[in-house]
Design brief:
Layout: H1 2-15, H2 17-46, E1 62-65, E2 71-74, H3 79-88, E3 98-100, E4 105-109, E5 112-116, E6 120-122, H4 129-135
């Protein structure tokens, strides 16, 4: 019986090939879109939820509007924003600063040219174990 169903569906597919192809491609695209959106939502809902004091942690994002109408949101802030935040809000206990460098960095040492395309600028006490362990809730 299933063999007959498959035979009939194959004959119908051979007869109406274009419309069936459009339907199958549309179904595949819509299903993959739904799966990707679902995975993205799941990732956003789980992001950084492992911190015990999550309500006390904040992430600074900057939104840029360019002259040509394009916009961009990035997860870092100017270095001087850290000092202004700590002065303006005394309840801030610790701040972790991390910023991405945009232009290539070129350094000459010993006759060799070193070029770094991507780099990060971080706080001076970033590698202090007590600082990092407290702010990111790591355990020893």
């Amino acid at each position: 019986m299933i063999r007959n169903y498959l035979k009939i569906s194959w004959r119908n597919f051979a007869r109406k090939r274009k419309s069936d192809y459009i339907n199958i491609v549309g179904l595949a695209l819509s299903l993959s879109t739904v799966i990707l959106i679902g995975l993205w939502i799941q990732n956003e809902l789980r992001y950084d939820n492992y911190h015990p004091q999550l309500k006390d942690k904040f992430l600074i994002k900057n939104a840029y509007q360019y002259d040509n109408g394009n916009s961009n949101v990035e997860i870092y802030s100017p270095h001087n924003a850290i000092a202004h935040l700590q002065q303006g809000y005394p309840e801030i206990k610790q701040v972790a600063y991390c910023a991405r460098g945009h232009s290539p960095l070129k350094i000459t040492s010993g006759g060799q040219l070193f070029s770094e395309e991507s780099r990060l600028y971080i706080s001076k006490n970033w590698f202090n174990p007590d600082y990092a362990l407290r702010i990111f809730e790591f355990r020893r």
